[in-house]
Amino acid sequence: MFYIIILTFMTIQERIDELRAELHRHNYNYYVSNSPKISDQEFDFMMRELQDLEAAHPEYYDENSPTMRVGSDISKEFVQVDHKYPMLSLGNTYSAAEVADFYQRVKTSLNEDFEVCCELKFDGTSISLTYQNGKLVQAVTRGDGTHGDDVTENVKTIRSIPLVLNKGDYPDEFEIRGEILMPWAVFDELNKEREQREESLFANPRNAASGTLKLQNSSVVASRKLDAYLYYLLSENVPCDGHYENLIKAKSWGFKVFDQMRKAKTLDEIYEFINYWDVERKNLPVATDGIVLKVNSYRQQRNLGFTAKSPRWAIAYKFQAERECTRLNEVTFQVGRTGAVTPVANLDPVQLAGTVVKRASLHNADIIKSLDLHIGDMVYVEKGGEIIPKIVGVDKEARSMAGEEVNFITHCPECGSELVRYEGEAAYYCPNDSTCPPQIKEELSILSAVRL
Ligand code: IVH
Q1: What is the architecture, at CATH level 2, of domain 322-445?
Q2: What is the pLDDT of residues 401-418, one digit of tens each?
Q3: I want to staple 224 with a disulfide (CB 3.0 to 4.6 A). Which of 13, 194, 212, 448 is the partner?
Q4: DSSP-assigned states of every residue in 371-405
Q5: Cα of 178 to ligand 1 centre, how many Å?
Q6: Which residues does residue 128 pair with via DSSP β-bridges, in sequence order?
Q7: Which tens digits make up the pLDDT trace of 209-260?
Q8: 309 CA distance to ligand 1 centroid (A)?
Q9: Which CATH code for domain 4-67?
Q10: Which residue's CA is the closest to the ligand 1 atom numbered 15?
């Protein structure tokens, strides 16, 4: 909604430039620093708005626009490998109506009976495994979809990935794709340890899994107890025409496959699957963020083909993040070890996604401003894949007498120094790294350890 309001004050070109800059920044946060600042849904909405504007205004074409690529997780330390088959992403949908559109599009294009395989969308990091004569020979990350990092040594430490297959009718050479995941229990334990060591926490199991996979020391990777679900078999000679049937085969060869996937013949059966797993997924040991729907027959998949970025035969349906409304009592500001100042909302306690939430992140000064926050406001708190809930909106109609407007502070709450904002950064920093207590905390503890 915020973006629509802005549009009325901006030219189309300014809005396109702004969206490109924002998406480049969030792409970097997500793929390079492993610390996303916005939800996937917010990212997708921005991307869609940009795609629509670019389609309507081809005169603003830019070969480096974020819409030109699917993102990259390449890091320098690993050998780069070309994917034999490109690793594409899936188009996202957020409503039953959009799922129905997908179903109708497939029905019209195929003009014959078809089945849809319904699966969970695992929220980890994707991997492509190559097997030759029943042995794992290579594991490659998605990278930019065309080539990725060879992380074979790290992947070999994941116990649920078979190094040698059980006897079976697998092709001499094939690829199998899936998702590497950090189970919730391992993630919670890892963050607890990091908290004790005063290290920065992983925002969610997805970042923890992709961060772990890129570690240089595979024995540390082994200690992180990653898991993997496989969901797509590729080969010149797959054993069956059905995707579901191929995965059942893969299961018998030794792969971990989500065996509660279902083949649906009707849209109602698809909705049934979605509604069931929207609730039941909370009992799973790993994070999921939606459902994936795939036309089951490989022959029909070939007929439907691909767009530049994603298959026409598959789509993701993203679950809604859980959201509650509660009262904003106070905003406090925390200074981290780097001097970055984080605004924290203190709330009336509210039950959200299985925990009681009293505090939520407000991220930065721009977000506070765009929310037009006042003390006493009824605010919407959302918990998606992130461990720290965040404020996503204000119920302005519930505002009777507006309390004090929330403004970002100008001086450090710890040492009183004037805050600075570096060019291109959203955060404010306390520049006093020589005497500001939270910034010298580590130095102090090292000094006292030396004195002891
Ligand atoms: S199929 C060509 N199935 O979602 C289609 N992907 O944007 C290949 N994902 O990069 C993907 N669960 O990392 C597929 N059951 C599932 C999935 C799944 C999670 C991830 C995958 C992919 C992204 C799609």
Answers
A1: Beta Barrel (2.40)
A2: 778 999 999 999 999 999
A3: 212
A4: HT-BTT-EEEEEESS-SS-EEEEE-GGG-SS--PB
A5: 7
A6: 140, 177
A7: 999 998 888 778 888 889 999 999 999 999 999 999 999 999 999 899 998 9
A8: 13
A9: 1.10.287.610
A10: 121
